Amino acid sequence: MLKDVIFLAIYIIIFLTLSIMSILDLFIKKEKFIYKFLFFLIIVMMIFIAGTRYYVGSDYNLYLDLYNRILEGSYSGNVELVYVVFCKMFRCFPVVLFAFAIIAISSKAIFIKKLSPFPFVSLLIYFSYVFISFDMGRMRQGAALGILCFGFFSIKERNFFKFLIVIALAFLIQKTSIVFLPVYFLPKLKIRKYLYLLIVIGLFAIGMLKLDLLVVKMLEDFNILDEKYSLYFNDNRYVYFSFSITNLRRLVLLILFLFLNIDKHEDFEYRMFLNTYFVGCCIYYFFRQFPTLAERVSMYYCFSEIILIAYLLKTIVIKLNIIVMPMIMLYCGYYIYSLMDTTAAEGWHNEPYNPYKSSLGLNVWDINTITVLALFCFLTGLLIFYRRMRGKKYEGYI
Questions:
Q1: In terms of C-beta density within 10 A (0-12 exposed, 13-18 middle, 19 or more buried), how is residue 50 classed?
Q2: Is residue 323 in some structural domain?
Q3: Per-residue model confidence as pLDDT tens digits over 196-251
Q4: pTM of the complete model
Q5: Torsion from C-alpha of 255, 29, 40, 360, nearest 10 degrees
Q6: 287 plus 307 within the same structural domain
Q7: What CA–CA distance (Å, rounded) separates 286 from 210?
Q8: What is the pLDDT of residues 148-163, one digit of tens each?
Q9: Residue 197 is part of which domain span?
Q10: Closest residue by Cα to residue 130 from 107, 156, 164, 155
């Protein structure tokens, strides 16, 4: 048990740090310089953790095999351009991983910092829900998702040309990112709250009746599917839908976003994220029997939940936040723990997240020592900050 805790320490420390900062983010008036510095420090540590991993994460062996074939010249022409260029330019797999980590994590950090009312809350959700699965695993989609985050800024400006440039850049990293194209038009979509739910529940029912198989068959018969999407449909992982917390989470969140943020529905920015999340839910539940497709494609849309949850906490009263925030922390912790030992069993291309190993040649003790020392300095600064605020009136943004 102690050994497991030691191996998990690098994840636990980051999770606890973000949890503490999320609570302070909600209830204590911010001092901009300190918050910016702490935010920057955590992002740097996340880039370091994702960028220097060694045989850690989903699709690790797949990327390594593809890297070797690219250098040998034996790869197929269907590999995205950016990955090919990085492999040939750096000619060092750890450097390729680090480059993708910088793109994926720094872009999402800018997105969160500029658009979330509570950046550390959004960062906590991102760390547990996206960072480990994508930026430490399916890194090409993680990087493409980071680039697509800039698309939201183009949507706010109503600049379609800039938006197309963002789509093109993301497409060069991961072809599936083309599904993000309709998002530009979603803020104009205005429908009744109950209709949102009826559509999602209807698609949920269609998925359970396996009518999605008919749609897939039609797409394949007409040769509409790209090769990558065909792989998602034909990965031999068709499963029957099961009711679980994870499967129903999106539906519960959609209900909360619809009915607890009523005053926000006329706000362009909020509607942009809400409608994006709604479409993601539709994709997820309609194709839920195909886990790879449902999870990967819907992520381009459902990623907006990290901003919507922050909006939700901004809307409800402080007393409820005292209850809601621990619930979010518990679920995030549960989700992280569920990822730790399951990935390796899914195929040759995956490696487990636990224990964490570094390409710098550090063993787990060295890594955790460095992490603890860095976060000790950070928490010391945090303690000083808290003591300065002690005795002052707590001020939220509610």
A1: buried
A2: no
A3: 888 888 877 776 666 555 555 555 554 545 555 444 445 544 444 455 566 778 88
A4: 0.84
A5: -80
A6: yes
A7: 9
A8: 999 999 999 999 999 9
A9: 189-315
A10: 107
